[in-house]
Amino acid sequence: MLKTERLLETVFFLLSKKKATAEELAARFGVSKRTVLRDMESLALAGIPLFARHGKDGGFSLVESFVLDKSLLTEDEQKEILSALETIKPLAGTDTEKLLVKLKGIFSPRDGRTDWLEVDFSRWGKKTGDSEKFNLLKSCILKRQPVAFVYSGTSGKTENRQAYPLKLVFKKNAWYLQGFCPEKKDYRTFKLTRLREASVFPGRFEDAYLPPLLDTPEYVPENPATTSADAGNQNPPDTTMQNPPVPVISLTLQFSPEAAYRVYDEFEPEEIKRNDDGSFTVEVSYPETDWVYGYILSFGSTVTVISPRKVAEEIKKRAEEIRKKYL
Fold this sequence. Notes:
Blueprint: H1 3-17, E1 19-20, H2 22-29, H3 33-45, E2 50-53, E3 59-62, H4 75-88, H5 94-107, H6 127-143, E4 147-152, E5 158-171, E6 174-181, E7 186-191, E8 195-200, E9 238-240, E10 248-255, H7 260-266, E11 272-274, E12 280-287, H8 291-297, E13 303-307, H9 309-324
Antiparallel strand pairs: 1-3, 2-3, 4-5, 4-8, 5-6, 6-7, 7-9, 10-12, 10-13, 11-12
C-alpha cells in the first residue's frame, strides 16, 4: 500500500473508530509502530486535526468537529465511495449509520442523485428478524464471543449447535456464517436462513482461527447447493472439510421452454444451449451427493435427465415414491 493511500485510510479508520492506538494501526496496515508515528506526524503537518493521548486509555483520535476535505478525492472516487456507503448500509448498526449519513453528506454532489442504489439483504417479509440475527453474529465476531443456535442441516436433523463465529460471507444470493465448531474441532459453514434462535454463549475464544476460503480446491462442499425447498439458489448450506473429496458427476439436462427463468437464473451462459424448439440443454457438474436428486426434482416436469442413466433412474424412482404418497 502506498503511503498516501495508507494516510487516507488512516483518516477514514479514525473517523469510524473514534480512537486507535499506534499498535492497532500498525497491525492493521502491516507496518511498524515507528512508521505509524511518522504517519501521524505527516497527517498533522497536512492540517489533519489529530489528538494524541498517552497512558493506558490513550491513542490517536480526530477532533470531533473535523470534516474530511473531499477535494482530496477525484469525482470518480467520490462516486465509488457513495456506492460503497449504500452497499454497506444494511449491515450497519445505529452508530455506524450516523457515520454513513455524515460521509454521504461530505461526498454527495449538490446536483446529483444519491438514491439510485438500494441494497437489502433480508428475505421478503423478514427484515427485522434477519437484521437482528445478522447484527448479533457480527457483534460476536468482532468481540470474539462464541454463539449458540438451532440449526437445520441438510441431513434433515435440527439440533443445538455452538460455534466460534469468524466470518460472514455473502455468496451467490445467500449469507453464510463461517466458524469453528469446538465439538467437531473443525471449521463449518452455516447458511443463515437455516440458523435460528442465535444467542451469545458465555466466554471468549482466541483470535487464532482462520476459516478456509469457500472455493479452495481442498474445501469441497458436502452439499453443493441448497435443498429443493430453496430451489433457485445454488449455494452450499452446510459445508465441512472433506477427506477424501466428494466425487463430481457431470449431468446433461433438458428443460422445457417454460423453465427459461430458472435456467437463466441458475446456470452459467456457457452451460446453456437453446434448442430450435425453445427448450434448453444444460451441461453442468456437481459433487455427487443426495442433494443432486432433490435439486433436479425441484424443477418438476420441466426437466429431463439425458445422462448419466443412473441419475435418470434414481429420479424416476424418487418421483414414483412421491406419486405413491398421493394415491
